[in-house]
Amino acid sequence: MIKTVDITLANRRPRLADRPIEKRIGLIILATDHTTEVDFQRMVASERIGVYVSRIHYANPTTPENLLKMQPSLTVGAGLILPDEPLDAIMYSCTSASVVIGDGEIEKAIATAKPAVPVVTPAAASVRALQAFGARRISILTPYVAETGHPMAEYFTRLGFEIDRFTCLGFTDDRDMARISPKEIEALAVEAMAPPSDALFISCTALRAAKVAGAIEKKIGKPVVSSNLATAWACLRLCGDEEARPDIARLMTLPYPGR
After folding, report:
1. CB contact at 8 A, 199 and 230
2. What percent of the chain has pLDDT above 70?
3. How far apart are the C-alpha atoms of 229 and 255, rounded to whole Å?
4. How far is CA 243 from the centre of its chain?
5. Which one of 32, 229, 235, 257 is least enclosed by Cβ atoms within 10 Å?
6. 3-state SS of the chain: helix, strand, coil percent to 5?
7. What are the Cα distances from residue 246, in Å, to 73, 81, 103?
8. Helix (H/G/I), strand (E/B), else coil: 29
């Protein structure tokens, strides 16, 4: 025979905090992304800062046409991150798509679901990072094919950067890009760096470049900015986290421009 258990309602309801965690960062990432969540858990998430993820559909190959197809999903993806709750920043994690779609169009699409929330894209964050170093001449390493690399070269040139060397690795599948080992990225980065450049930019949120950015800096003697490193830095600074973390890379010792 099952014994009846008396269930008692507490005399009072517990007090509620304004937020379960002080700061909240939303990530909109590709369904195929292996890297961004891991990088943000390592570099950004803490007892004070929570990272909340929404995935949107993406179909390889990584071409300008396929990248553009993600634009209609951005508003829905943003709206699924803690619905009706404010965020301190929201980041769309695709560098080549932020170039092809346009930073402004991405901001508008996200603002439809999350108005008044600062929007971070890898392309715009990387530009701010390079500007924080005072870099004007840069080298760029990407995993893309040339078709996808051309819009990125135009993006940086249009913003006033001189590109000394632009290296493409010829990949079309972001899942394969994620499988390039950090040691390989380190070696490829050294080869991609032109001596006259002020800094090296390693594009693509799929690449595990943030993990070895500091090691690359030691080898080339110049600052390194990668997509995930730049967005992590931007999101931390937008949350008021100004802690210098030179163990990650030089960028993590700099303030965010305009703040």
Report:
1. no
2. 99
3. 14
4. 19
5. 257
6. 40, 15, 45
7. 36, 31, 29
8. strand
